[in-house]
Amino acid sequence: MIIKDTKIYLNFDNFKLNMMGSIYIGPNNSKKTDGKDDYSREPQDLADVAAKAHDKG
Question: Residue 2 pairs with which residues in a beta bridge?
């Protein structure tokens, strides 16, 4: 997000969605700056909890 003056510009160049709008269900998990998966966000529901547990192994 870029804020200039009083306008906000959103950059969706690298925006990807997972299945059903979830955080962890699907191949597009958030990444840290070092490229590793980022598991710091709280799951949205029980299905997301299960997907997070699956991804973390």
Answer: 9
